[in-house]
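New to this. Please check this protein:
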Amino acid sequence: MRAGKLQHRVRIERMLEMVSDSGNVQEVWLPLVTARAEVKEATTTEFLTGQIEGYTARAVFLIRWPVQTISTADRLTYAGKLWNITGLSEIGRRRGLEIRAEAVA
């Protein structure tokens, strides 16, 4: 993984449930990891849902191996957009992490 290709800043967030004093449960997204990334692939896949035509933006983000454990329950923020993590793959022996994500509509 070349440092010169890690040109984009991404933040990975984890959802936590906070309970207020009154007993209300609130879902809060807290920052877990901020990293430099290479956006390797950014495509738009068109699909048909019934009679409505839509699209889903998908991307692959390559980052150095993070200290924190990341899962598909987490989400990613990049360029002002929210991305749901759909897949994770280790690059080498903990050299890097490939994150596959879909943009939140």
Q: What stands out?
A: The first strand starts at residue 8 and ends at 19. The radius of gyration is 16 Å.
